Amino acid sequence: MERTLIIVKPDGVQRGLTGEIIRRFEARGLRIIGMKFMQVSRELAEKHYEIHKGKPFYDGLVQYITSSPVVALALEGTNAVAAARMTIGSTKSHEAAAGTIRGDLALEVGRNLVHGSDSVENGQKEVALWFNDSELISWPRNTDPWIFEGR
Length: 151
Ligand code: IDP
Ligand code: MG
Description:
CATH superfamily: Nucleoside diphosphate kinase-like domain
Strand content: 15-25%
Number of helices: 8
Order of helices and strands: EHHEHHEHHEHH
Bound molecules: inosine-5'-diphosphate, magnesium ion
Shape: globular
CATH class: Alpha Beta
Structural class: alpha+beta
């Protein structure tokens, strides 16, 4: 099953949108296998955003994600990565389609509320970076056969 790491970023938590954001992923059918409220360390932020190192927005990005608590979620589902990215919307919030989290709730790229893994490989890697095995729960959800055909 695909996995994706979702982060409700500091602006989402500060604005009281945590529930609204999680609701959209739950309603989409993705299964929560891990969730925690946490303060991101500089070390974790730098590892997570390693690929953006050297870009002009990198320092601001690390500052943003460590500025205040976040809620991290590990989600599982068929097509979890692509489906979550569509639910999140384009990186530049002002260009994100209406109906997406960013398109409905955000205006700027540097305050775009939420992170979602960008590939199946990164979904597995990021979930492993943010969660210990003991923080992940593999559970059969009673609605799974109504969401995942043939399971
Ligand atoms: P994504 O979150 O849609 O996958 P990425 O390109 O992976 O977007 O960029 C990671 C994060 O870096 C974005 O979500 C956003 O918070 C921030 N970011 C990206 N581009 C810019 C920029 O041009 N200015 C300020 N922040 C940016
Ligand atoms: Mg990204």
